[in-house]
Amino acid sequence: MPELKFGQVFTDHLFIVEHAEGAGWGRPQIRPFSQGITVHPAAQVLHYGMCCFEGMKAYLGVDGRGRLFRPDLNMQRMYRSSRRLMLADYDPGELLECLKELLRVDHQWLPEREGYSLYVRPFMFSSAHTLGVGRPTRSTIAITLSPVGPYFATGLTPIQLFLSEEHVRAWPGGVGDCKVGSNYAPTILPQAEAQRKHGTPQVLYTLPSIDGSDPESAVISESGAMNCFFLLDKADGSGLELTTPPLDGTILPGVTRDSILALARAWNDIEVAERYLTIREIKQASEEGRLREIFGCGTACIVQPVNALIRANGDVIAAPFDASSTSSMTARMTHALTDIQVPSDWSVPFDDAKIADKELFRAEA
Ligand SMILES: *Cc1c(COP(=O)(O)O)cnc(C)c1O
């Protein structure tokens, strides 16, 4: 197989279903990908970013069965995002059944090579024909599948992140906890600037205090599409602590984040805390040699080791650890999360999906 660029190759089919106020949900369709999707030039999604999406992976389990990782969480999250945008109501459990059917139809696209998978992209948008900024009266749900290769060709390769103290990804009362398109468009510029000025491929956002009087008191948020974890030696010498920011509405509730927290808590050998970390705290921990590891996490990379945070003033907050050493938390988590792709409660087969005789989407009352 030639090298696969993320998200550029698609399978033969896509799933689509449309809703119009009054008429209710139309017939769900699995149709040739090449037919594309037609939208009206005034479709609200093209003007006001009224869309949301999900990202998950389907893979071949060691037992030869096609599987999804905790897909119910992705479906619930997309449902929450879509409700925030007032898109048409639907049953997320039924959408999961539609996804399984699409995977069954395109199952020959499921890569057999280790580390390869099908990236699953469900999305929903306002297809209402109006330039009015108002509640969507038409909604479309679609799902595409894209084969992807391993994120890391050779082992875990650490990256540096630019620590943004200027641009903010999400804010209290905003929609940072929803996977809505409008959260992502504004992150392209800061990311391109960070790459150009500091050579870092991604940005770690912070949330500064509103008056900006004490820049070091800004709290760490997350990366453009990754939640972030910090492994610290506690200042009082009482051992290690794995921390990540709490789900206060500014953080995307990642499935990988949730899985890492659950695993670390089950291992029960280090403290696990969902709490705020300020720039001051991690800077001090780094200077005192207590910042053991930093890693990002998300469906695409699973776990991404980070060995330094670069600030705009050139300061470096270093976490110089060997991610590939089997004793690192980063490597331990990576292996645990990869091993879960074997049959487990979190690994849901889709090859037995049967939806043919089921009414998928109830017509609107
Ligand atoms: C999708 C996403 C994540 C990762 O979520 P997973 O469910 O683990 O893939 C983290 N942060 C942001 C902003 C995201 O969009």
Automatic annotation (TrEMBL):
<dbReference type="InterPro" id="IPR043132">
    <property type="entry name" value="BCAT-like_C"/>
</dbReference>
<dbReference type="GO" id="GO:0052654">
    <property type="term" value="F:L-leucine-2-oxoglutarate transaminase activity"/>
</dbReference>
<dbReference type="InterPro" id="IPR005786">
    <property type="entry name" value="B_amino_transII"/>
</dbReference>
<dbReference type="InterPro" id="IPR033939">
    <property type="entry name" value="BCAT_family"/>
</dbReference>
<keyword id="KW-0028">Amino-acid biosynthesis</keyword>
<dbReference type="GO" id="GO:0052656">
    <property type="term" value="F:L-isoleucine-2-oxoglutarate transaminase activity"/>
</dbReference>
<dbReference type="InterPro" id="IPR036038">
    <property type="entry name" value="Aminotransferase-like"/>
</dbReference>
<protein>
    <recommendedName>
        <fullName>Branched-chain-amino-acid aminotransferase</fullName>
        <ecNumber>2.6.1.42</ecNumber>
    </recommendedName>
</protein>
<dbReference type="GO" id="GO:0009082">
    <property type="term" value="P:branched-chain amino acid biosynthetic process"/>
</dbReference>
<dbReference type="InterPro" id="IPR043131">
    <property type="entry name" value="BCAT-like_N"/>
</dbReference>
<dbReference type="GO" id="GO:0008652">
    <property type="term" value="P:amino acid biosynthetic process"/>
</dbReference>
<feature type="modified residue" description="N6-(pyridoxal phosphate)lysine">
    <location>
        <position position="179"/>
    </location>
</feature>
<dbReference type="Pfam" id="PF01063">
    <property type="entry name" value="Aminotran_4"/>
</dbReference>
<dbReference type="InterPro" id="IPR001544">
    <property type="entry name" value="Aminotrans_IV"/>
</dbReference>
<keyword id="KW-0100">Branched-chain amino acid biosynthesis</keyword>
<comment type="similarity">
    <text>Belongs to the class-IV pyridoxal-phosphate-dependent aminotransferase family.</text>
</comment>
<dbReference type="InterPro" id="IPR018300">
    <property type="entry name" value="Aminotrans_IV_CS"/>
</dbReference>
<keyword id="KW-0808">Transferase</keyword>
<dbReference type="GO" id="GO:0052655">
    <property type="term" value="F:L-valine-2-oxoglutarate transaminase activity"/>
</dbReference>
<keyword id="KW-0032">Aminotransferase</keyword>
<keyword id="KW-0663">Pyridoxal phosphate</keyword>
